[in-house]
Amino acid sequence: MQVGLKTTTAHTAATQLRSGVDAPQTIDRSTAVTSSASRNAFPEAALLSRRPLRYNVQLNQQLTAVQQADDYLAQTESRLLQFRQASGQGDAGRQASALKKHLEQRQQLSGGTIDRHLTSSVQQANSVSFTLPGSEKLLQDPAGETLVFALGGRSRELAAVALPQEATPRQTLTLMNIGLGRLGIHARQESNGQLSFQVDESRWERVSQHLSVRGEGKHFPADSFTLLAPQAEVASSDEMLQLTQRRERDGQAKLQKTLNHITTQRTQLRQQQVSVSSRIDDMATAFSPKQALETSQALQRHLSGNAKQFSTLSTALGAQANVRLATVKNLLG
Fold first, then answer.
1. Within 13 Å of residue 286, how many CA atoms lie on the same side as its CB?
2. Where are the domains of the chain?
3. Which of 18, 56, 217, 302 could form a disulfide with 222 if both were Cys (CB 3.0 to 4.6 A apart)?
4. Does the domain spanning 127-232 belong to CATH 2.60.40?
């Protein structure tokens, strides 16, 4: 493998930097090992904020998301245990209020990393699954009707769906997804034949309160919009909120099931932490502090005398940043 730059300036920069990067035989391996061993097993949020350039942007975001998810689940687990203990003593008022507030602020406290089922969603947006009463008839008998869906709220969005008279359920579902997709809604048919929908949780409040439809007098009236009543599927957070408001016969069983689920989720998050930590170790530099200082000083001298060539040098350094450490050392050597 041979890599070269077509500018004299970049070559000169590599030559000046070589004195601080080359000569791996002078590396103090014991110092590097000691430094690695003394590092925290997993970066804390404060460390990330103080040294944001230590890792690439994507890795920083992943670290922050995993930490937020684990922190929220840990607090949820603690509050559920306190609530269960207080309930057993017949004085759960204060604990119930704290748990209710904690669950209602899930989106804000977890940074969107925990969904309604108290499941971590570090790498994807949270969604809400819901049903529309009576919507199954659209699959069974499209009736050749054109439906106009309206989503109100702060602004008004419209989407039309033209259903052929003899369309198959699959064709009807495809046409509905094309139309409702403009409103951020996705439809699917469950194994039992029921029609269900999904929407991003950030849009659920609007959908649950302001989704309406107008037809042609077959399934829905043609003279006005009919307000729909979306029903969200029951999630763990909903069940725990209900427990804070009233006693249920199987309340303790639901609470224990939720605690078991949280334990499973935290175990998976710890596995993600181990994986990320391994990636961090792979990115760690093997150079001693003295060599790093010499390299930075060489870079400073070069930039101070060749300010106009900064863009070229920046491109060269950026390319090196995406190459494995051993490859860079070989090239510069």
1. 15
2. 39-118+236-285, 127-232
3. 217
4. yes
